[in-house]
Write a structure and sequence with these properties.
Length: 328
């Protein structure tokens, strides 16, 4: 940074330290706009980032959030790519927001939008999604965490599986599959078989470790190993769907839907997702009038029903009644 920019930042920092938040806010906007107009984006970004950081640290969430949003506008004007440095600035600001600050949600939306426009991932940068998702998970905002972790990185299944299992632990034992599916089916809908498989493995490993009395059979073949839970048929179904996808076997997929039909009736929210999975992986055509990918993502994620409080009591999801012990 030049000495001129250093002096501007120092003056704004002084105003913030003295409690002159409004004056600092207005000064930051005016000066940054001048540099943007001159297309001196580097200077504008340095001023905006420093100012947003100082305001957020001073617990001025509204002003800090507004300057943060102006920073993203400067990123867009400069057509910056979502490289590690540019993302790092935004993520460091994100971590300074209070969970209750209203501008945080718009900051997240604009950040993802910028990364989508100038990055290689149409749904937004996976690293940004991962960090956002883990923050929401820490705050027990399950629906928001799911939306972002599904679009996250290779590390995201661990956090998503833990989130779903912790949520499941507040519900009845027989509902395990309904919570596991909230990770598995969305991953499959976006074509991420690896993360779908990993999330189910992590979920069932924790299930076995924490429920010592739960009957489990280990089934091995030359090509795969699988745990079978006689009392949890829909967990077995999810495992077998993943097996069918790995084998590319449409016949096996059809057989599974037929064999488990009575149990699948109890989880109607899965119906359209399974139809889409059949088409995506096995070319089983279905007739539709809407876009099932987005419809089902919304349905599986709870459709915006997340409560407003930062730590809501986990809500139960649709699950079948306890099956008989001899079901496979």
């Amino acid at each position: 940074m030049s000495s001129r920019i250093d002096k501007i930042i120092a003056r704004s920092q002084q105003r913030i330290t003295e409690g002159q938040f409004y004056e600092a806010h207005q000064q930051l906007r005016v000066i940054a706009a001048r540099y943007v107009k001159q297309r001196n984006f580097e200077a504008a970004i340095d001023i905006l980032f420093s100012g947003a950081q100082a305001l957020l640290k001073a617990e001025q969430g509204g002003s800090g959030g507004d300057i943060g949003l102006t920073l993203i506008e400067a990123y867009n004007d400069a057509e910056l790519k979502p490289d590690s440095g540019n993302k790092g600035k935004l993520l460091s600001l994100l971590r300074l927001f209070s969970p209750e600050e209203p501008t945080r949600k718009r900051f997240i939306t604009e950040m993802i939008g910028w990364s989508s426009k100038y990055g290689e991932f149409p749904a937004g940068d996976p690293e940004l999604h991962h960090v956002i998702g883990t923050l929401y998970a820490e705050e027990h905002e399950a629906y928001e965490a799911e939306r972002h972790l599904v679009l996250g990185t290779r590390d995201s299944p661990e956090y998503l599986a833990r989130l779903e299992y912790d949520w499941y632990s507040e519900d009845e034992p027989h509902t395990a599959a309904s919570y596991a599916a909230r990770a598995v089916l969305p991953y499959l809908l976006i074509g991420n078989v690896r993360n779908a498989t990993q999330s189910l493995q992590l979920f069932t490993s924790r299930l076995s470790d924490l429920h010592k009395n739960l009957a489990v059979q280990n089934v091995s073949s030359a090509s795969s190993d699988m745990r079978v839970y006689p009392a949890l048929p829909l967990v077995n179904f999810l495992n077998l769907v993943l097996l069918a996808i790995r084998r590319g076997s449409a016949d096996l997929f059809r057989q599974l839907n037929s064999h488990y039909a009575i149990h699948l009736k109890e989880v109607s929210a899965w119906h359209e997702a399974l139809e889409q999975i059949g088409e995506l992986y096995f070319e089983i055509q279905v007739r539709r009038q809407t876009n099932p990918l987005f419809d089902m993502m919304g349905s599986l994620f709870g459709g915006g029903g997340a409560p407003s409080s930062p730590k809501p009591k986990p809500r139960r999801v649709e699950a079948p009644a306890p099956p008989a012990a001899d079901l496979d």
